[in-house]
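Justification of resources, computational component.

The compute hours requested in this renewal are based largely on the per-chain cost of generating structure records like the one below. Each record pairs the submitted sequence with a full C-alpha cell output. That output is archived, and it is also reused by downstream analysis tasks.
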Amino acid sequence: MRTVAAALLVLLGLGSHARADTPVVVELFTSQGCSSCPPADAVLADLAERPGVITLAWHVDYWNRLGWRDPYASAEATNRQRAYRNALKLPNLYTPQTVVQGVHDIVGTQGVEINRAVDAARKQDGVAIQARWRDDGSLAIEVPAAAASGTVRVVTYDRAQSNDVTAGENAGHKLGTTHPVSASTVLARWQGDATTMTARPVLTPTSEGIVVMLQGDDLRVLGATALKVPPG
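The structure output for this chain reads:
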C-alpha cells in the first residue's frame, strides 16, 4: 500500500519534486598530502559560490602516510569514498575525485565537466526535503513522500581554514579547504513515506553548517538542504 500511495502522490504532483528547492550536492575527496589536490580545492571553492549547489570536502586519510597528517582527514571520509567506488563500479580510489549528486564521477580538477554535471543534475526531479533549527538546538527534518527509499544523512562541515603544510608532497605550501566535513551520521532509513524526524548534529566551535542529505540505496542523492549553524 505504501508504494501505491507514494506513486499516486507523485502522479498528483504531491511528491515535492520542486527543482528550485532541491540543490545539487558536489562532494570532493581530497587531501592536503596530495600534490594534485589544491587545484581541485580551488574548483570546489568556486562551486561553493554557485547558487543551488551544496559543496562538501571529504579529506581522506590514506595520504597521511607520506609524512603530513591532514588535520581534516578521517577514516570516515575514506570509507565514504569506498562506498562510491563500489556503487559506481570504479576500479580504484583516487584523489582528487569529485562526485556530483552521488552518480557522476569526475576528476576534481575538471571544473568545466563538473559544472556540466551540475547543470544536468539541476534538470532532474528531486525530493524537496526541509530542515530548520528548533529552539532547543535540535534539527527538525521533513521528508515528503516519494516513490523511492534510502537513508537520511546529517553532515557537519567546518569553516574554511588554511594550514601551513610542513611535510609530504605539498610541503612549504599554505593550503585552504572549503566546507571540510567534520562529522557525518546516518540518521534513519527512509521507506518513501512522508516523515518528520529530529536530529542533534555534532557541533564544535569551528562548525559552520549542516547538510541534510537523502540518498537512495544506490547512493544517488535524491534531495538535500543546507543550514548555517546558528550563532552562539
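DSSP finds four helices and 13 strands in the chain. The chain has a mean pLDDT of 90.
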